[in-house]
Automatic annotation (TrEMBL):
Catalytic activity: a hydroperoxide + L-cysteinyl-[protein] = S-hydroxy-L-cysteinyl-[protein] + an alcohol
Gene3D superfamilies named in the record: AhpD-like
Cited InterPro entries: AhpD-like, Sestrin
Keyword field: Cytoplasm, Oxidoreductase
Listed GO biological process terms: cellular response to L-leucine; cellular response to leucine starvation; negative regulation of TORC1 signaling; positive regulation of macroautophagy; regulation of response to reactive oxygen species
Protein name per Swiss-Prot or TrEMBL: SESN3 protein
CC annotations in GO: cytoplasm; nucleus
Main localisation: cytoplasm
Chain segments carrying region Disordered: 206-225
Record family assignment: Belongs to the sestrin family.
Organism: Sula dactylatra (Masked booby)
GO molecular function: L-leucine binding; oxidoreductase activity, acting on peroxide as acceptor
């Protein structure tokens, strides 16, 4: 139930991995405005927008472990209206974040039985952006590669084969403490999976036992029809209750009790045809362009998110800074430029695809710095990651190391997440004003 394939890939850059895991843990498991089961369901909704079975299956398991209602796993039609109302903003942020407005925010916050609080909404927005961006990383690094139509698969990364996280990081100066924590997480994950299987078997056995008892009681008390009817009704209620509990679990298992995961992600999203479209920048209508000089993460987004969802701003800021500080001298040298120039070219290119512009940047540099195959790869992983395949991963930068390709995917993850947050937090700011 944890992100083994993801941490294995991020393990090439252990300092970043440590920062990522802290943020992931805080979002999902520490005190915050949203209930724990809702957090995992929001993650399911976000991952489903990109058909990312890896993340959907992971959060389905954690949703059940957090005590979530198994009926919710049947799809959006079975969840509370308050949670279902988040679908519109989820859809927009995932594919065309520039369309989000203060009216979307107002609609969710309006006074009603199903209204969101400002703190809850900020938590939800961060979760959505986090999972959308993580889906890009999952597809970009091949973590979803072995996922078949039925949602099964060993979730092995494209490369380096079956190398474990500890082996991948041993040569990168990873601290022994981080390795120890990861080993414990893996052990915990196995224990949790075994516990979940036992729970599933127990629920099924209890359901069958209640049903057998009910039938025996019917036979014995056939002459006392009215009392028997009452007994049948009570028996059915108990059996139905157990059956409800096993609904979500049965969605995750096959006939042999093996964990298989979701078979149909369509039930977790509406308007599946809504996807990314090229941001249309019109010179005569500059209001469409998001100018970082007017609203930036450092000057605006950080303080807002940190005020409404305590400490998350610091964790996100650390993650943004960490990916910017990763060593990239080899990559830059191959491209004939300085590391900072090369990374900024990738970052600004990603933001440009979402309509975010930097007045102090010459965008002609992007075409000079980034070769065509790299640009195609970055755009695919950023905008429609579900279309990424192993051939694309292998073809771009054939001469580059696997760790350098992972580095590019980390830049995509963080640049995309910040882009979504900038649009959402700006809309929340406009609503508050």
């Amino acid at each position: 139930g944890r992100l083994e394939a993801v941490t294995q890939q991020m393990g090439y850059h252990p300092q970043y991995l440590d920062s990522f895991l802290k943020t992931q843990h805080y979002l999902m498991h520490m005190d915050g405005p949203l209930p724990f089961d809702c957090r995992h369901y929001i993650a399911i909704m976000a991952a489903a927008r990109h058909q990312c079975r890896y993340l959907v299956n992971l959060h389905m398991l954690q949703f059940l472990r957090a005590g979530g209602d198994p009926q919710w796993l049947r799809g959006l039609d079975f969840i509370p209206p308050k949670l279902r109302n988040l679908n519109e903003i989820n859809k927009i942020l995932a594919h065309r974040p520039w369309l989000i407005t203060k009216e979307h925010i107002e609609k969710l916050l309006k006074i009603s039985e199903w209204s969101w609080s400002l703190a809850e909404l900020v938590h939800a927005v961060v979760l959505l952006a986090h999972c959308h961006a993580l889906a890009s990383f999952v597809f970009g690094c091949g973590c979803e590669q072995d996922e078949g139509p039925g949602g099964r698969g060993s979730l092995k990364p494209l490369s380096p084969g079956n190398q474990c996280f500890c082996e991948a990081t041993a040569g990168n100066g990873c601290s022994q403490e981080l390795l120890r924590i990861n080993r414990k997480r893996s052990l915990d994950s196995c224990m949790e999976l075994d516990s979940l299987r036992e729970r599933m078997q127990r629920i099924h056995m209890e359901t069958e036992g209640r049903e057998d008892t009910r039938l025996l009681q019917q036979d014995r008390e056939e002459g006392e029809r009215q009392e028997a009817e009452v007994g049948v009704q009570d028996g059915c209620s108990a059996a139905e209750h157990c059956s409800d509990l096993s609904v979500g679990l049965s969605l995750l298992t096959d006939t042999d009790g093996e964990i298989t995961g979701a078979t149909n992600l369509a039930c977790y999203m509406q308007d599946p045809d809504f996807g990314y479209q090229d941001f249309a920048r019109r010179d005569e209508d500059q209001t469409q362009v998001f100018r970082v000089q007017d609203y930036s993460w450092e000057d605006h987004g950080f303080s807002l998110v940190n005020r409404l969802y305590s400490d998350i701003g610091h964790l996100l800021d650390e993650k943004f800074r960490m990916v910017d500080g990763l060593q990239s001298s080899a990559m830059a040298k191959r491209q004939g430029c300085e590391p900072s120039v090369f990374k900024r070219g990738i970052w600004n290119y990603i933001h440009c695809m979402f309509g975010i512009r930097y007045d102090d940047y010459d965008y002609a540099e992007v075409n000079q710095l980034l070769e065509r195959m790299l640009k195609v790869y970055i755009k695919t992983v950023t905008c429609y990651p579900e279309k990424t395949n192993s051939e694309m991963f292998d073809r771009f930068w054939k001469q580059f190391k696997h760790s350098e390709k992972v580095h590019v995917n980390l830049l995509i993850l963080e640049a995309r997440m910040q882009a979504e947050l900038l649009y959402a937090l700006q809309a929340i700011t406009q609503y508050m004003i």
